[in-house]
From TrEMBL:
One Pfam family linked to the record: MFS_2
Keywords attached to this entry: Membrane, Sugar transport, Transmembrane, Transmembrane helix, Transport
Stored InterPro entries: MFS_2, MFS_trans_sf, Na/Gal_symport
SUPFAM superfamilies, per the entry: MFS general substrate transporter
Lineage: Bacteria, Bacillati, Bacillota, Bacilli, Bacillales
GO cellular component: plasma membrane
Protein name per the record: Sugar transporter
Length: 471
């Protein structure tokens, strides 16, 4: 390892350009970045948790039609991500940075459109509400891209230090988990009356979380500092085709895309299967809430350990080890079919802790991939690279959205039966244990053998970029 890389392991390095006289990376940046995803997820999680039941029970839209809307919107959002990312990369930086201003500019229309999704107008027909749902949901998703793309891209210019970038990824995940806990724990107590969703309460909840989201976006803008200022792309910088060719040669990007998409598909599959696993296999649907609490708890337990582990071993190494632990736990669960629901949750907690480490560093992987793109091409295209990553995830969400239903049907589940056949129950248990074990093993293999940026190469990459920028 070069001397510069050794020094980088101990402290941040200069970006190689005039960073002005900014304060050093610290707690303000961490809280600022946390507020960004807290603001995002106040509405993203609210939509994920309650919008479908709001559409079916209040707007009286069929579940199948809602599924079509979600599929169309996700595919459109993927396009919006790419277009907006490219747009951001062609803008000149301002005195307040390149990405922060767009978060502030677009946050109000984003929040306003989010509140509009939950508006009910007395006397309107079901056809009106169907059109209202399509328009407001797609507009909201498009505006979400205009805030989320600059927010995600900003991490790569807040600091050049790999360990500090891992800290940002960790705090981002913490913001998402806080929003998830608040909405998933308090939301059902507020928006449901007599086991039915209440339109007025849902609207007021959206307004409250909208105000909180705006406060968070302002906090993100005020507290975060963009330190890495690179020269504007010239000449070939505007060549979209050349950028895409370079991205296809970006092995770290392709590997982390494969790992992240596979992880996301697994998460969606497990989320869908667990309902049937606890309801039918364990005959204890109430244990699902404990499962969700333990899953969130595992993330918070892992948070203090992430930074020291990454500093000592590296992001790739820490994430791969977590995947190995998760895979082993789920293999063990598959061969222990006689567990009670609480025993299952207790053992699963260890596996959750394992894959929490991957979840906590995945956004830091993306910042390293952005650096690698600059190293290959000489072009700094943070938003373009991040938007490709985001676009691929949304395409994956669209494709994987129905995978749980298909899987449950494939093992013989029959909703008309009061009690499922033993074959169906065994199939559900395999879907909830063996399939995740195989997927986590696959992700482990991708990280170990196909993702090239281990600790040594990541440190050297940052040092090489600093040297190039300084020339």
């Amino acid at each position: 390892m070069g001397e510069a890389a050794k020094q980088l392991d101990q402290q941040p390095i200069s970006s190689g350009v005039d960073e002005k006289k900014t304060r050093p990376f610290g707690a303000r940046d961490k809280f600022g970045y946390l507020f960004g995803d807290l603001g995002n997820d106040f509405f993203f999680t609210l939509v994920s948790a309650f919008l479908m039941v709001f559409y079916t029970d209040v707007f009286h839209i069929s579940a199948a039609t809602v599924g079509v809307l979600f599929l169309v919107a996700r595919l459109w959002d993927a396009v919006a991500d790419m277009v907006w990312g490219r747009f951001i990369d062609t803008r000149k930086p301002t005195k307040n940075g390149k990405f922060k201003p767009w978060i502030l500019r677009m946050s109000f229309p984003l929040v306003f459109s989010g509140v509009l999704m939950f508006v009910t107008i007395p006397g309107m027909s079901d056809g009106f509400y169907l059109a209202w749902a399509f328009v407001t949901y797609i507009v909201w998703g498009t505006l979400y891209s205009t805030v989320n793309i600059p927010y995600g891209s900003m991490a790569s210019v807040i600091t050049s230090n790999p360990v500090e970038r891992t800290t940002l990824s960790t705090w981002r995940t913490m913001g998402a988990m806080i929003a998830s806990l608040l909405i998933n724990v308090l939301g059902p107590l507020v928006v449901f009356v007599d086991n039915q969703i209440d339109a007025n309460r849902m609207f007021m909840t959206a307004v409250v979380f909208g105000v909180l989201a705006m406060a968070c976006y302002i906090g993100c803008y005020k507290l975060s500092t963009e330190r890495i200022v690179v020269p504007e792309n010239t000449g070939q910088g505007g060549n979209f085709g050349q950028s895409m060719k370079a991205l296809l040669k970006n092995k770290p990007l392709l590997a982390i895309l494969l790992a992240s998409l596979t992880f996301m598909v697994c998460t969606m599959l497990v989320g869908a299967v667990n309902v049937y696993l606890f309801k039918d296999y364990f005959s204890n649907a109430a244990a699902l809430s404990m499962f969700g609490l333990v899953q969130a708890g595992a993330v918070f337990v892992a948070i203090p350990a992430v930074k020291p582990l990454v500093a000592k071993f590296g992001k790739k190494e820490t994430a791969a080890a977590g995947m190995a632990v998760a895979a082993l736990v789920y293999y063990a669960l598959y061969f222990l079919p006689g567990l009670t629901s609480m025993q299952f949750v207790a053992i699963t907690a260890i596996g959750m802790l394992g894959f929490a480490f991957f979840n906590l560093v995945v956004w830091a992987f993306v910042t390293d991939v952005i650096d690698y793109h600059e190293y290959l091409t000489g072009l700094r295209e943070d938003a373009t690279v991040y938007s490709v990553y985001s676009m691929a995830r949304k395409v994956g969400q669209a494709v994987a959205g129905g995978i749980g239903g298909f899987a449950i049907a494939a093992v013989g589940y029959n909703a008309a039966r009061q009690t499922q056949t033993q074959e169906a129950l065994d199939g559900i248990y395999a879907l909830g244990t063996l399939v995740p074990a195989l997927i986590y093993t696959f992700i482990f293999i991708v990280l170990v053998f196909f993702y090239p940026l281990n600790k040594k190469r990541t440190l050297q990459l940052a040092a090489d970029l600093a040297e190039k920028r300084g020339n």
